[in-house]
User: Which sequence fits this backbone?
């Protein structure tokens, strides 16, 4: 039995669609369908069934997927043992949202690593659901998720269901980020009705537990906004904001070094002040923080405190 087929089945469960899973895996949909069928034939039962809401695991399929994740996790640990350089290797892994104060904290953490020792550091900027799945599937030790407070119960219930613990890092209001050349850049507090006339830059892969992606997008994005650019990584957002002065983006407060580097400003908006967001540190039940984990968390809060004190005091 080919364990790569286990990874395929897990991706199908995550995506809720064979077509979407094939896109995520960068493979042709017929090839993925064939691989899943071969796996089901070997097992002697169906892993998935089709429903009006997409592809979902059967009762036996759900149990199989739990075992498959554990097998893949153990294989990853075995591989880590065989490739280990010894106890001096500095190991750290985390999935984070596309937040600049978090990236700033990570950079400070990485700058203080011992360059004379082995280094095995993994960091991924992604959406909250992927950060959760990365821990559940054993690919990362830590994660940071971000959500609007009105959806907190969805996320906390999902974390409990996945046996993940969480600790609040920060609760904040989004700010409007824009070029210093934006027509509204000189306003200390922008007017929402004026702002929505311009082009909004949006991260296009935000998900909410238990809600279909399109439903989550509909709830989180006002229909009044007609001009949007969707993207999926943080570096491009700065390039777009800098080079297209009529764009803007909702962000957590940003460190000065990013603002100065990209010639940007951040402004409060009356309409946005009603919405609060939260960043949560997440980790597996029973997880023991390493010394490197603790160092990262210290740098994270150091970076957070700088922007939070500047913005709100």
Assistant:
């Amino acid at each position: 039995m080919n364990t790569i087929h286990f990874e395929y089945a897990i991706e199908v469960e995550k995506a809720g669609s064979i077509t979407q899973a094939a896109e995520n895996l960068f493979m042709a949909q017929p090839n993925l369908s064939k691989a899943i069928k071969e796996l089901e034939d070997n097992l002697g039962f169906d892993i998935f069934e089709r429903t009006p809401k997409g592809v979902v695991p059967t009762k036996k399929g759900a149990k199989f997927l739990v075992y498959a994740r554990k097998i893949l996790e153990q294989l990853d640990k075995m591989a880590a043992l065989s490739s280990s350089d010894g106890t001096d290797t500095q190991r750290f892994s985390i999935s984070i949202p596309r937040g600049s104060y978090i990236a700033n904290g990570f950079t400070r953490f990485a700058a203080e690593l011992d360059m004379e020792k082995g280094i095995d550091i993994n960091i991924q900027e992604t959406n909250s659901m992927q950060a959760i799945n990365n821990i559940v599937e054993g690919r990362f030790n830590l994660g940071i998720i971000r959500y609007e407070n009105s959806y907190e119960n969805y996320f906390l219930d999902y974390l409990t269901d996945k046996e993940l613990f969480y600790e609040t890092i920060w609760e904040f209001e989004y700010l409007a980020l824009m070029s210093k050349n934006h027509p509204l850049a000189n306003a200390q507090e922008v007017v929402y009705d004026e702002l929505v006339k311009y082009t909004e830059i949006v991260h296009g892969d935000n998900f909410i537990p238990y809600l279909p992606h399109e439903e989550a997008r509909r709830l989180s994005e006002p229909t009044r906004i007609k001009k949007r650019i969707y993207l999926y990584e943080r570096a491009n957002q700065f390039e777009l904001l800098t080079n297209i002065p009529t764009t803007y983006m909702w962000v957590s407060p940003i460190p000065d070094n990013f603002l100065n580097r990209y010639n940007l400003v951040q402004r409060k908006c009356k309409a946005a002040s009603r919405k609060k967001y939260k960043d949560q540190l997440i980790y597996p039940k029973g997880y023991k923080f390493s010394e490197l984990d603790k160092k990262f968390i210290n740098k994270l809060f150091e970076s957070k405190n700088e922007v939070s004190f500047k913005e709100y005091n």
